[in-house]
Amino acid sequence: MPEMPEVEAVCRRLRAEAEGATIRRARILRPSMAKGDIEEACRKARLTRVERRGKNILLHLSSGPVLHVHLRMTGNLYVTVDHRMLVTSARAVFELTDGRGIVFEDPRALGRIALLERDSLPEVGLDPLSPEFTAEVLALLVRGSKRPAKLFLMDQDKVSGLGNIYAAEALFRAGIDPRRAVGSLRRPRIARLYQAIVEVMRAAVETSDRLYSSPGRLIEAERQELMVYDREGEPCRVCRRPILRLAQGGRSTYFCGKCQG
Ligand SMILES: [Zn+2]
Question: 52, 55, 150, 173: which one is catalytic?
């Protein structure tokens, strides 16, 4: 399942290759995955901006509305040199005036594409890759919160895009017990957490970006070397004690009982 860093990598590529391009026409190949009159809105529309909000991809059209794409489990969105060259799992194609195409591919057909008005775009929490995310802002967000640190990080209303993997990795790097009430962290520890989140997410985007160097099927990203996630019973890479697992909010949390005290 694409995590936020993979979606960011998809957006970066689209920005570099197709921002400013003009769509000649859109073809929806699997209508059950699409909502709204996409064909009409895309006719001779320019793709003015590629925006990411959490895992939502927003393609702003010069005609006014916005195409909202969600990749869900197996979706991918990429530019192909010839819009006629399509794989069988292509669900929509946006033919560009220069002959290229933007392909929405999804083998399992669980993704969604919808036409939205500008005032009804999805709202998400603060993006850890945005310049607005700072140690000071994180300190304000955690103030007074009794939420366990892991659940706080996974709460998309506060900080968006940190899934199960990256929340666990950031807490390990910051040396924070995932069960600790996040509002009880002292300022230097919050600063370390901020730094850890940014480092983990940047590294993940870079890894994802390398893996998307050629357009094609979205593959499960080869993750950066993980310190704790999915390593129950294996030795901690720092102290050699076995990594522990516990359930939090219905998900598994992996951590080191010694390094995260
Ligand atoms: Zn350890």
Answer: 55
